[in-house]
Each structure stands twice: as structure tokens, then as C-alpha cells.
Amino acid sequence: MPAMQITLTRPDDWHLHLRDGAALATVAPFTAERFGRAIIMPNLNPPVTAVDEAEAYRGRILQALPDNSDFEPLMTLYLTDRTSADEIARAAEAPHVHAVKLYPAGATTNSESGVTDIARAMPALEKMAELDLPLLVHGEVTRAEIDMFDREQVFIEEVLAPLLERLPALRVVFEHITTAAAVDFVRASSHRIGATITPQHLLYNRNALFSGGLRPHMFCLPVLKRERHRAALVEAATSGNPRFFLGTDSAPHPRHAKESDCGCAGIFSAHCAIELYAEVFEQAGALERLEGFASHFGADFYGLPRNQGTITLRREPWQPPATLPMGEDTLVPLRAGETVAWRLPREARAL
Ligand code: NCD
Ligand code: ZN
């Protein structure tokens, strides 16, 4: 008999895009229904590069939440070639800034101001290692001759491994890992490295991009990989190894920006994120390990207390809507018009 309901310590999302303005108002409540806290990505346009900007953005997020919400946004700064050691020192002191995000320039959405050469960011990175401010990495190289599907593995060899050798005290989260190479690297590393894993990389392989035709709503970065890699990610997430924890990378874009001749990368999953992870763990016969992955290991890695409350999920199949309104635009959510196996109780949700 499959479990009909599970109760977990309230989970956290260690990698989330909330955007700003009308999009923020649409998406933030979905995350706040499910998660106690989330690490908020700083890739706004323009990016959040200074502590003052992160504080102001945090204020806008709190404004966008329902009145009764106690959801806590954990802010990050966007690393550039010019981020100073002084700004890092301010960030390490700031109560609401928890990490700094490295986007290789050109790797993904709003990464144009990212780091062009890791050597240029070294003063900031050295200061982060000294003050124990975690570095979050989008782990892909961007050189045109490197195949799209190999960019994570090459990043490990060319950037991440040398960085950890040079700064052994630096605490690193390898974000949204997608390959067996990343799993092996994180497992074997003697450094302070953890990794987040998204629902889409656990549930889908790259065939999902081409199933019956081109599927722009399944396009995210790093791009979905082949089945062997998906299986390695499921094994890592459900293994109980505390280095692997939940980070949705929920990344809303308006429908017209996805269904375009140059469609944006990003999958929106916040409306059913913990529900989808429950599917993964159930399929793997490891539902009893969901709580560690979703609610314990990330907080432990960041040195934050685990949440006090709980959430309950029921085994009750439901269909997310085909679209959600997002300001003047619409948003196509993951699993639109398809079935999600687990559900939050009615009193806890809007959908
Ligand atoms: C993210 C976005 O849209 O901001 N897109 C994505 O495909 N994951 C950026 C990112 O995390 O790479
Ligand atoms: Zn992201």
C-alpha cells in the first residue's frame, strides 16, 4: 500500500528565482505556501550586486507575500569582475545576505554582468573564504566550442576543482547539478561542498525537450541531460547523503518569452515543487528520506536552524492549470494540464 499522506519538517528551497514587480507578486505566494525559507537568486536586470540592493529587494519580496506569511527570503549577491573585498565584508556582516552567486558571463538568463574570468573575482572569493560566506556556482563553461551537454563536466575540471584547491576554506554550493560527473565530484570531494538538485533534473531526461515536437517549457539551464545522468541524480538525492539538498531553480518567464524563436531558459515549478520531489522519492522507494533532503540538509549546510513547523502532503492526483496570470502576461507552469501525484491540503494552498 503506498503511503496516503506524509508529514515533513517544513522544507526550504535553496535555489529560487522570484523576479520582481508583477512576476514576483504572482510567484512568491506559491513558494511561501510550501517552504519556510528560500535562497533568492540575484539575477534581476540589473543584477543585485550590493548589500543595499539586496536589502531593498528583500523588502519588495516581503511586500509581495500574503499578510499571514512567515516565509523568510534569504538574500544573495551577484558576483561580478568588479565585486570588491569590501562589499564582501559588508555582505558577511549583513543579517539577510547568506551567499554570493557566481554566474559565468553568458551562461544563462541575465548573466551578462557575470564573471568573465575567475581570476578577476579572486579578491572577492578570497574574502568569502576568509569570512565563510558561501559561494553558489552556476557550473557551466560558456566557450562556443564546448558542447552544450558537456559544459558542466568541463566546468568541474577547468574552474571548480582548481578553485577549491586554491581556496580550501571556501564553502561552495554546486547549484542545480545535472550530471553523474557532478554527483561523483561532490561525493568524493574533501572540501566543504554541497549541491542542489531540481525537480526537473530528477524527473526528466533530455527526451522531454523533444517529445512529439520542440518543448520550450522544458528548456532550462543547465539543459536536461541523458537518462544515465538523471538516474545518478535520483540516486544521489535519495541516498541520504547530506551534501545533496533541495533547490528548485523555479524560474518563471512570460509565455511569449518561452514560445519564441529564441526562447528563454527556465522552468517554473514553485506551484508543485515539494509535491514533485515527493513523486521522485516515492518512485525510488525512499519517501522516508525526503525529509532529510528537503528539510534538514540544506539548513545544516548553511549553518541555519532547521524549521520548526511541518507540512503535510496527501497522495491525491491533481492537474495544474494550463496557464497562470502573471501581470499582463501568462505563465505556463511545469506539468500544466498533466497530473501531479501529491497535493497540499486545501487549507494550505491557493491552487
Ligand atoms: C534561470 C533564470 O531564468 O533566471 N534559468 C534557468 O534555466 N535555470 C537562470 C539559471 O538559474 O540558470
Ligand atoms: Zn537558477
What is the secondary structure topology, with strand pairs?
Elements: E1 5-9, E2 13-16, H1 21-34, E3 37-40, H2 51-64, E4 72-78, H3 85-93, E5 97-102, H4 122-131, E6 135-137, H5 151-166, E7 172-174, H6 180-188, E8 193-197, H7 199-203, H8 227-237, E9 244-246, H9 255-258, H10 273-283, H11 290-302, E10 310-318, E11 324-326, E12 329-331, E13 340-343
Parallel strand pairs: 2-3, 3-4, 4-5, 5-6, 6-7, 7-8, 8-9
Antiparallel strand pairs: 1-10, 10-13, 11-12
N-carbamoyl-L-aspartate (NCD) binds at residues 17, 43, 108-109, 138, 220-221, 249, 251, 265-266.
Walk me through what this model shows.
By secondary structure, this protein is an alpha/beta fold. It has a single domain, classed as Metal-dependent hydrolases (TIM Barrel, Alpha-Beta Barrel). 33% of the residues lie in helices and 17% in strands. The protein has eleven helices and 13 strands. An eight-stranded parallel beta sheet has the order 2-3-4-5-6-7-8-9. A three-stranded antiparallel beta sheet has the order 1-10-13. It has a two-stranded antiparallel ribbon with strand order 11-12. Strand 3, helix 2 (51-64) and strand 4 (72-78) form a beta-alpha-beta unit. Helix 3 runs parallel beside helix 4. It is globular, with a radius of gyration of 19 Å. The chain starts with a strand and ends in an 8-residue tail after the last strand. The model has no long low-confidence stretch (mean pLDDT 97). Bound molecules: N-carbamoyl-L-aspartate and zinc ion. N-carbamoyl-L-aspartate is lined by residues 17, 43, 108-109, 138, 220-221, 249, 251, 265-266.
